[in-house]
Design brief:
29% strand, 6-stranded mixed sheet, alpha+beta, Alpha-Beta Plaits, 47% helix, 5 helices, globular, adenylate cyclase activity
């Protein structure tokens, strides 16, 4: 089988992860999984779609999303966090699903439906630096959004 040519493109990459996922699963696996599925269906999927993004993959409690431009990624992330906070309002503190989001632009390598590259790795590091319920963006994203 011949190797397919490498497909490179510039993208704005968002990585989101659930804060305290292990704690939530330890307290109620079935309820946590059901709540995550519901949040993906009712909040994540439509928000990403409405802002021109593509969910690359779901990784347990995390998600990798690709956008064509940084402004769309930031707008989607802010809306996502707002909708997640609203969905959490009636829940007790220990059952709330709270996200961290990191966003970085970068040259990505597309392989099938997946993407790879430094931009993805940096977005994941930024996600880890975000406050619970917050969005952490790279300087390049900041510059793109400020001037865009």
């Amino acid at each position: 089988m011949a190797d397919l040519p490498v497909q490179r493109r510039l993208a704005a990459i968002a990585v989101a992860d659930v804060v305290g996922y292990s704690r939530l699963m330890g307290a109620d696996e079935i309820g946590t999984l059901a709540a995550l599925k519901q949040r993906r269906t009712e909040i994540l999927n439509p928000t990403v779609r409405d802002h021109g993004g593509r969910i690359v993959k779901v990784m347990g409690d995390g998600v990798l999303v690709e956008f064509a431009i940084a402004m769309n990624a930031v707008t989607a992330a802010i809306e996502l966090q707002s909708k997640m906070a609203e969905a959490n309002e009636p829940l007790p503190e220990n059952r709330r699903i709270v996200l961290r989001v990191g966003i970085n632009p970068g040259d990505v390598i597309g392989e099938g439906s997946d993407i790879y590259g430094d931009g993805v790795n940096i977005a994941a590091r930024l996600e880890a630096m975000a406050e619970p319920g917050g969005v952490c963006i790279s300087g390049k994203v900041f510059d793109d959004v400020r001037t865009g």
